[in-house]
Amino acid sequence: MLATTFHTLDWVVLGAYLVIVLALGLAFARKQPQGDEFFLARRSMPMWAVAISVLATSLSAATYIGGPQHAFETNLTYLSANIGGLIAIVVVAAFFVPAFYRYKVTTVYELLGHKFGTAARRAASLMFMLGRVFASGARLFMVAIPFAMITFGSTSPLCLMTSIGIIALGATLYTMLGGIRAVIWTDVLQAILLVVTVGVALVILLQRIPLSIPQIMTALAETKVDDTSKLTIIDRSGDLSRWYTIWTALIGWTLFNVAAYGVDQDLTQRLLTCKSSKSASWAAILSNLIGWPVVALFLLMGLLLFVLYQRPDLMGAAAPEYQIDDSRKVFLEFILHELSPGLRGLMMAGLFAAAMSSLDSALNALASTTIVDFLRTRRVAYASTAGPSEQSDRGASRIAVLIWALILSGFACVCVFWQQETGQTLINFALGVMIFAYSGLLAVFLTALFTKRGNTVSVIAALVVGFICVLLMQDSVASRWAATVGIHDSIAMPWQMVIATAVSFAVCCVGRRPTVSPPPPSPLQHGQPC
Q: 228: which strand partners?
């Protein structure tokens, strides 16, 4: 039983981490965040903290577990996706962020309300909610795998679903207590812990392998995967079924990351807490630049784990006596079998830090769209003084966090069975579910920012068409009709993003832009207290 390898000292270390995180939430709860402070922190967060929070949110448990798994099974081509990320973040900083600050929005979908009307704004917000449930539910499922392993010694569906409930409860507590300010500062703590733990693991793994670094690099360079070396970063293949090529990096991953940083309230909400548009733009760019070496650390871990477990000819007498029967657990098996008590607990704390940093932000973003885009009446939204309306908002915000935690947990339980059916690596599965919402949302925002076209009907149609396009390109669906229409039955997610976004953009542009009267100015727009 794997649970027997997790000792008392490990539980003490992991418990201490959880106590610190909850204490931060309690500390910010004493300040009683009111109104939009719960979602925007009075736009007073320092740029560097926001950058780290964005990084922590974007990494998640998918990177902590899925990154090593991806490099273990394939090579380093995942790193090339960051090229598209850098291009995308510059686009977002130049066009999207200034627009959000110019309209002084609390959620990015308010911008669409100014352009197309309230119904379009709410439709986009609903699509975000659907996409965020897909993406964050998948990430919650992933972190349940190690939790089930160390707690129950099993990854059976029942153990995984129980673990999902326990993890969701922890993240929900401090998100409900302290709002976005608590989320950002706990993300800073968790990002530092995440990087430190993977760095420690790399050092120990290098000591465990009886080869010098040049010898390891030579062995990996000589190992072939799909006709490429394990050290390959740039793949020039034109194969539409490959996720990580130079072409997907420049086109598909660029669009994907524009959507992630520009139209997804989960990540964009961090940027809206900065003092100015300029600070927010630099926070976005800094988070991307920091992300390059951090992602590289996780991929390097996967390569070294490949040597440890798959190259007994190189390991000799130092080869592990146990086998890896599931690549999803390769990093976890290393933690549980190869690390000493206490250090195991620290590594698992790093894993939970990655999970919490993505789950807490998702809960706050979902709550913000629920309150701002749906529950506020015109009178409450533009009240001139603080009063019962803000008390009501604060209570409703916390109830919304709790409800969304239940919904995310439910979808995470669905993912227990869904991911096994797809057979994808964890990181590909997590990224793939996001584009169901991203394609339509990105098309609508591109129409709003760069054209004078679109209206409520075409916006709603574009969102629906984007979702359907992605659904039709899924392997399980496409394979049923590909033979009759002559379409390849395996289109990689970045190309799915390109196709679905292009179709949705064309649909959105069909409508004529309405004349939308701007709402009365909010007290927030004039610097009055939240």
A: 225
